[in-house]
TrEMBL record:
Keywords: Membrane, Transmembrane, Transmembrane helix. The chain crosses the membrane at residues 192-215, 265-286. The keyword Transmembrane applies. Pfam families: DUF8094. This is DUF8094 domain-containing protein. Residues 111-137 are annotated as: Disordered. Residues 111-132 have a biased composition (Acidic residues).
Length: 610
């Protein structure tokens, strides 16, 4: 009976091991599915729609082959379409049931209608044809969430949702790569292959054991049992006897020893085969019993109904800020205003232009502070699908124990983000509650009536407070406590006026005034229906002679001398400082006051009064 059970164990083990191996070999399906994308007409760009990438579940792998550098990037579909709106390209969409539809898209150019009888009508038509852009490189655009660039063959692992698309190109002039494929992994795990193989190995070992027990039983019970002859009594062996008469002890092994040796010989190969099969099983050959993760309660911020998508992600903002900082650092080193203009605009560019001029004329004039990039503590993108777009960011400076607040703006899909405002936050500045970066904030119109003061009036009102103090009609609307900029301006004006009166009060006069700057305000909404508002303001110092025979000399002021181009003037001088100010403006009905968050100040110009 033992042999019957042993044979049954062997057969069942062979079936189990064979079934497990078959699952990992002949019965295992393909590990991936690949779709080839082909186009009928060459174009410099290839747009692969998000629906194509998600036509099968799982991650996507994009492969593109061609000669030279191959470029691929992904971003929101609406952003990629906007970037391609003035160019010709091939677009691949999903037509359903695994069918791809490829179409050649040409830009829609709407020529300006000339006035009746305009002799330049033909010229206008020719100009409209020139609006089709050819040869624009997609490399380094701030619109892309990520980009890849490799030579001859590009492999890009992706995991994109339906609302994102992929752009494939070379240099924007030559045709896009013609051999493009998208591959998805296919789930073909065999969770019972491992248990079957290991279970079969164990069952085989059991069969071997049963076989040994059966063989041992047969050996012991082999032949008829007979009564043996009488055995003579055992005599002691005389070890002193030599030769043939000496007592003999047989060296032949017993049955127990024989059977034990065979068992070891048979069991070891069975265990070795089982171990070998066991080591060939990977993790997808076993059932997965991962514990369900325990959700952690987090504060939830729900986007208002109808709110548009945020302009950038946090990672995208970090990359944009790094690019801005690198270009600005290079421009600062070379005092290159044209290079700075590629990444700066508005009040920031005006301050840099003045600094470059002064550093070119004054040897020891200080360079401007660098643009901080790390760590990016706050990212607040505007939730807006159109242009221009705005992103506000706060970066900590652990060494200086302060933070930098800044505003970046992108004018259109083809422009890069430019830094327009930047100020310093004090260490104890309390920021208002802001939406997370993945939701973003709505932009607030300059004339918005939903704040206690429209953003376009904040700069002029604060200027009036600086000039008139508590006598200003707006003094009650601004928080004086903690406003270090206001305190420093008042102290500086008082000190300079006292110094001037000591020597020049009899022949001249020094006056101070403030006014709104030339640059438009930028405002993004907070969670309490208020807004963070960035504005520019000018502080003007005016010095005039009060005696007809007196002149104002700039011998001790190389900065004003360099900017004005004059050493003295009988009419006087004006010196303008540009301030970049960040305020928190509460919403209508709030009992809070307008609070200054951050600021920076730079000299802008010095002129002779005419």
């Amino acid at each position: 009976m033992r042999f019957v059970w042993a044979v049954a164990a062997f057969v069942l083990a062979a079936l189990m091991i064979g079934a497990g191996i078959a699952q990992r070999t002949v019965f295992q399906g393909p590990r991936s599915e690949t779709v080839e994308i082909s186009t009928e007409q060459d174009a410099p760009y290839l747009l692969i729609d998000g629906a194509v990438l998600n036509s099968l579940p799982g991650t996507q792998t994009l492969r593109a082959q061609g000669e030279g550098e191959i470029f691929a990037a992904y971003g929101r579909t609406m952003d990629v379409e906007a970037w391609l709106s003035d160019a010709s390209y091939n677009r691949v969409t999903a037509a359903g049931e695994g069918v791809l539809d490829t179409a050649y898209v040409e830009p829609e150019i709407v020529p300006d209608e000339p006035a009746e009888g305009d002799e330049n009508a033909d010229a206008a038509d020719d100009a409209s044809d020139d609006e089709v852009v050819e040869g624009r490189s997609p490399v380094g655009s701030d619109l892309w969430l990520d980009e890849f660039q490799q030579s001859d063959i590009l492999i890009a692992p992706l995991q994109l949702p339906d609302d994102m698309s992929v752009l494939v190109a070379t240099d924007g002039t030559a045709a896009a790569p013609s051999r493009v494929t998208v591959t998805w992994p296919i789930t073909n795990a065999t969770p019972w292959a491992g248990p079957l193989i290991v279970g079969g190995g164990i069952l085989m070992a059991v069969g071997v054991f049963l076989y040994i027990l059966g063989f041992r039983h047969v050996r012991r019970s082999r032949g008829p049992r007979r009564k043996g002859l009488p055995v003579p009594p055992t005599e002691p062996i005389d070890l002193s006897v030599e030769g043939e008469d000496k007592g003999v002890i047989s060296a032949a092994p017993t049955r127990r020893a024989l059977s034990g040796g065979r068992r070891g010989f048979i069991v070891v190969p069975a265990v070795a085969v089982s171990a070998l099969l066991f080591t060939g099983c990977t993790s997808d050959a076993w059932p997965q019993f991962a514990a369900s993760p325990t959700p952690t309660p987090t504060e939830t911020v729900v986007a208002p109904e109808g709110q548009q998508a945020p302009a950038v992600t946090k990672a995208q903002a970090e990359r944009i800020l790094d690019r801005i900082a690198a270009v600005v650092a290079e421009a600062d080193e070379a005092r290159d205003g044209d290079l700075a203009a590629t990444r700066l605009d508005g009040a920031m560019l005006a301050a840099r232009a003045t600094n470059y001029k002064l550093r070119g004329a004054i040897d020891d004039y200080a360079a401007p502070a660098p643009v901080l990039t790390d760590p990016l503590e706050i990212t607040l993108p505007q939730a807006f699908d159109g242009w221009p777009r705005t992103v506000m960011a706060v970066v900590d400076d652990s060494e200086a124990k302060t933070s930098s607040i800044m505003v970046m703006t992108q004018q259109d899909p083809w422009s890069e983000y430019k830094l327009t405002y930047q100020g310093n936050l004090e260490a104890d500045t309390a920021m208002p509650a802001l939406a997370p970066w993945y939701i973003g904030a709505t932009g607030v119109a300059p004339d918005s009536p939903f704040l206690i003061m429209p953003p376009e009036e904040v700069a002029a009102a604060y200027a009036d407070v600086l000039d008139n103090g508590e006598d200003s009609e707006y003094a009650a609307m601004f928080e004086a406590e903690g406003d270090e900029f206001r305190a420093s301006v008042e102290a500086d004006r008082k000190r300079r006026l006292e110094e001037f009166n000591e020597t020049g009060s009899k022949t001249g006069s020094l006056s101070f005034s403030s006014a709104a700057g030339a640059y438009d305000p930028v405002a993004l909404a907070t969670l309490e229906s208020g807004a963070i508002v960035a504005v520019s303001m000018n502080e003007i110092d005016t010095v005039k002679p009060t005696n007809e025979d007196a002149v104002i000399k700039l011998s001790g002021n190389p900065t004003a001398k360099t900017l004005s181009g004059a050493e003295e003037s009988a009419s006087g001088f004006t010196t303008t400082f540009g301030d970049q100010l960040f305020f928190y403006v509460p919403g209508q009905g709030s009992t809070e006051k307008i609070r200054l968050l951050g600021y920076s100040s730079d000299i802008l110009s010095a002129k002779v009064i005419k």
